[in-house]
Amino acid sequence: MLYPQNFDVIVVGGGHAGTEAALAAARMGCKTLLLSHNIETLGQMSCNPSIGGIGKGHLVKEVDAMGGAMALATDKGGIQFRILNSSKGPAVRATRAQADRILYKAAIRDILENQPNLWLFQQAVDDLMVEGDRVVGAVTQVGIKFRGRTVVLTAGTFLDGKIHVGLDNYAAGRAGDPPAVTLSSRLKELQLPQGRLKTGTPPRIDGRSIDFSQCEEQPGDGMPGGVNEGILPVFSFMGHVAMHPTQMPCWITHTNARTHEIIRSGFDRSPMFTGKIDGVGPRYCPSVEDKINRFADKESHQIFLEPEGLTTNEYYPNGISTSLPFDIQYDLVRSIRGLENAHILRPGYAIEYDYFDPRALKSSFETRQIHGLFFAGQINGTTGYEEAAAQGMFAGINAALQCREQEAWVPRRDEAYLGVLVDDLITKGVTEPYRMFTSRAEFRLQLREDNADMRLTEAARNMGLIDDARWDAFSRKRDAVSRETERLKSTWVNPRNLPAEESERVLGKAIDHEYNLFELLRRPNVGYADLTQMNGGKYASPDVSRETLGDLSEAVIEQVDIAAKYSGYIDRQKDEVERAAHFEKLRLPAELDYMQVAALSFEVRQKLQKHRPETLGQASRISGVTPAAISLLMVHLKKGG
Ligand code: FAD
């Protein structure tokens, strides 16, 4: 049957990429259809029940700054919040939350079901409708044909998914869900470049069988006994503490020599070590057998016992992801302190799945081969909910822009972690599941969690992604930051008007000439509150008080303080950004035949011909394309080649 309505954007897959893609396209006014296997699993966390962390939290804040759902759903489902690296510089500070799976999913579904322009439909998609070199829709398992101007594919770990437990394996998208085998074959027929990756998950444990008295308690920030008691962190710009449900602690235990012995005894039945698994797994997130194999000298590994929710006894033992046979899993879990009587609710497993080489995507995430077809999430070789959500929102935006016949939106590497993610994927591809780290961003000083809104909300508003309430709150914050910065820069403190003891108390030592407040705030030991309260509150501003700005006041003060403390570094980074921008602006002709650029080595010519970078900046980041090759290419272009 041909469905009687046509859509602008059809999103296939309702995971973290798919839900953000569908929301973004619908918010931009496109008639959007979200097709997924099962409406009950929209926004499901396949693995660990947590959102954020270093690099990943930055992406969540960016998605949030553009009106996405992940941070808000985390505020509604988060049962433990922490600010990681809180004692380090603001660039690497990151929010992480433990989420109640059920509450998180319910929050995502609520947002989806209340989004105008968005239709949900439960069915497996088995085929894409392609006419010439353009996608025109998707076909479901029972033959329903949905026509759409664009299709965003976000099939996660489901494409030809295969689960391994020991030497046993079976086809699945993740435990309890069917694989997408027919769709995978269809994509292979379309000859999109593809490979296999793998990831894994630990066995889950019934909390009633854990002896918590043998484990170390780890409260979240703001919880009794935790950092900043009484002050719970919040993820979303529009979130507030009152949204958070009851908070719960995590627990810490460790593996030991006996655990390692048990794990080693299962190596001969490990699908990883016996060659049953071909797919490459994430090196930085290894299975426990991989850790024991690679770090044979290490006597113990830390395990976090993370609650899966408020209405379940299930615990996620973070650190013992495994695909060893179940009898080994059973013994290894019971060899761990506190888990001697543990009951396993679900076995751990590894999953292998198809991904597609992201170098075959344009910088908008549209496939080069098939117009109107976009890929986002795990299908592009990444891992992680946050990486998926950011890509989904990005692909949804670009599918919507294409429907509006507008140019693609692609943030630069100095504007957003999203820019780094997209650029890394399309220029370098992946050799293992890609996850975000702050070290991937060369301009990380300006890509902070705290200024994600300042970097992205205006662009999002211009594209139609930001509602009036968020825009109003953002504008008030932005204007207050700029007014307060100006006020500090133009308010002068004269030593004659400042008592010496006051100057020494706040500034460390008496000042000998006139300074403005912004200059004084640059000093590492000078806090905003002390400075503005100096001299009987003479320098305070009613404009940034709680009375005027409510919850926004702390965020405004934070921005002003960071701008002052880091202004030297940030200015230096701005120079680097300007230099790099020169290359980014130089677009390479789409029809350029690199094989004819004789000055380049054969290898470089081949690489450029294959990957067809859109800008000189992108070309410079392809592995093997040297700075010398870039200079030669510039000369060629200047000559009109
Ligand atoms: P998914 O969340 O997989 O969602 C895909 C969606 O598409 C699902 O709703 C599915 O039903 C739907 N779908 C698929 N095919 C079709 C079709 N043909 N028709 C209709 N609907 C379809 N990440 C980490 O960061 N750390 C980890 O340790 C980690 N371990 C993992 C372990 C396992 C076992 C698994 C399965 C995943 C793990 N992940 C881990 C990855 C994380 O779950 C994914 O990165 C993230 O969920 C990807 O989001 P996505 O939206 O791309 O895909």
UniProtKB/TrEMBL annotation:
Domain of life: Bacteria
GO MF term (any one): flavin adenine dinucleotide binding
Main location: cytoplasm
Binding site for NAD(+): 281-295
Residue span, tRNA uridine 5-carboxymethylaminomethyl modification enzyme C-terminal subdomain domain: 564-635
The keyword Nucleus appears for this protein: no
Binding annotation for FAD: G13, G14, G15, H16, A17, G18
Keyword line: Cytoplasm, FAD, Flavoprotein, NAD, tRNA processing
Signal sequence range: none
GO cellular component: cytosol
GO biological process: tRNA methylation; tRNA wobble uridine modification
Cofactor(s) it depends on: FAD
PROSITE patterns reported in the protein's UniProt record: GIDA_1, GIDA_2
Subcellular location: Cytoplasm
The UniProt record lists the keyword Cytoplasm: yes
A UniProt-annotated Pfam family: SAM_GIDA_C
InterPro entries associated with the record: FAD/NAD-bd_sf, GIDA_C_N, MnmG, MnmG-rel, MnmG-rel_CS, MnmG_C, MnmG_C_subdom, MnmG_C_subdom_sf
HAMAP family, alphabetized: MnmG_GidA (MF_00129)
Its job: NAD-binding protein involved in the addition of a carboxymethylaminomethyl (cmnm) group at the wobble position (U34) of certain tRNAs, forming tRNA-cmnm(5)s(2)U34.
Assembly and oligomerization: Homodimer. Heterotetramer of two MnmE and two MnmG subunits.
Family the entry assigns: Belongs to the MnmG family.
Name of this chain's protein: tRNA uridine 5-carboxymethylaminomethyl modification enzyme MnmG
Organism the protein comes from: Diaphorobacter ruginosibacter
